[in-house]
Amino acid sequence: MTERARPPEDIPPADFFTRWIPEAVAADAGRRRQLGDTSMTIHFELEGEEGGDLAVAVERGEVRGAPGRPEAPDLHVRLDVPTWRALNRGDLSAPEAVVRRRLRMRGNLLLAIKLHMILG
């Protein structure tokens, strides 16, 4: 099994969500297959420098990202930028971040598992 591409360490969060993740999923047939017919909208609220509100929409294996708050997200994910970077590097797992209260989610938590297929 090949290892997934990792985003550049210094990528701005907005670029990650609006460009990098959509391109990475589009180039990875395995990710698209795992997403299947999943349809969801996720609101990421990143706190701190370079943070902000970002929306990610998943529809039939395609991922689109945009700045701002989505109107009716299925899942809301709140974390700070250093935690987000640690997750991207693989220095911190999502379950550990939740336990440490560095990552908070509300909404359809079953979608958090699918979220891992997109970002993980």
Physical arrangement of strands within the biggest beta sheet: 3-2-1-4-5
Helicity, as a percent range:
25-40%
Class inferred from helices and paired strands: alpha+beta
What does the average pLDDT come to? Answer: 89
**How far apart are the termini?**
14 Å
Shape annotation: globular
- Portion of residues in beta strands equals 25-35%
The arrangement of helices and strands along the chain is: HHEEEEHHEH
Biggest sheet character: 5 strands, mixed
Number of helices: 5
Could you give the count of β-strands?
A: 5
Low-confidence stretches: none
Radius of gyration: 13 Å
Oligomer: single chain
What does this structure look like?
By secondary structure, the chain is an alpha+beta fold. 38% of the residues lie in helices and 28% in strands. It has 5 helices and 5 strands. The protein is globular and about 30 Å long. The relative contact order is 0.19. The mean pLDDT is 89.
Any chance you could write out the topology, listing elements then pairs?
Blueprint (H helix, E strand, L loop, with lengths): L12 H14 L2 H7 L3 E9 L4 E8 L2 E6 L7 E6 H9 L4 H6 L3 E5 L2 H10 L1
Parallel strand pairs: 1-4
Antiparallel strand pairs: 1-2, 2-3, 4-5
Feature tags:
120 residues, alpha+beta, five-stranded mixed beta sheet, 5 strands
Please provide a brief summary of the model.
The chain is of the alpha+beta class and 120 residues long. It has helices spanning 13-26, 29-35, 81-89, 94-99, 110-119, and strands spanning 39-47, 52-59, 62-67, 75-80, 103-107.
